[in-house]
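Entry 14. Structure prediction run on the chain below.
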Amino acid sequence: MGGHEFDLPCANERIDRAKELLNRIMPNFPGFNGFGLGFENPEFFWYIFIDNRDLIEPLRGEFSAAEIGMSLYPIISDFIRPKQPIKNNPEQNFIIQGGISVGNVPFDTSGTLGCIVKQYDRKYIVSTSSVLGPPGSKIHDEISQPSAEDNNRKLNIIGKLDSAIRPNGISRNYVDAALAQVYGHVNCTARIKDIGRPTGFRKATIGMNVRKSGKVTGYTEGRVIATDVSFLIYREPNLVLMVDQFLVASSESEFCSYGDEGSFIIDGRNNFLGILVQSYKGMALCCDGESAFERLGISDPNCFDDLPVED
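Output returned:
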């Protein structure tokens, strides 16, 4: 780094030290809302998300004093607060697939169905907890497609809430995800709209080209601009800290918008990288997909294979 021959062990040590320092000092600087690791050949650097320019010099001072040897790149921001998704009133989908509207009926949520997966002989919807199982929701809550917000006609009930991994305000949170069991008669596929069926798992790395299909912005392409991301987001009624996330942005237009939460992040070979946890200024804050599946208990090695519709 720093114009010298690239030394991976040295880089990893500096990254780990910097990440621990930033996580430690973030609570002591109100308005320091998040950070993430970026790379511009030949150097790694840290994005810092702050809501006050006056924080730049104190943070740089703390970082410099630690003698980590990496730069800070400030971005003026707020913590991520969900907004009301844009109503798009989609036509009724007869084959349920990833990339379309879904919601929890009792709590009137609205977001994106990430994908339909199977756990041996059962079919499940995967999305975020904010979409399928918000705070206060209960197992067996009805799930509709489209969401009530996106459909003024009779609700199409397609399943029931099975489990939710909700971020909380008293710890570091790695995953925001939920499962809803799909009723046997529902015609569904593991394909994601405009993308196809996921083929496996892969870890996100800086510079990786990715895509997603969301209920608001549809199919978009982008690039992983940061990993090792920690960010404060709002989950009613608290701010919660998401850690070890990755950040996706598009150079052409917005990669995502509010309402795309739950979308699967997919690479060019249809590997599953992560779940879109929160839209932020056209960028996507995402949790690791394999970690989410582990927490949800999805262990079927053929989870992305299609299941036939029951008679």
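Helices lie at 8-25, 56-65, 129-132, 289-296.
Filed with the rest of this week's runs.
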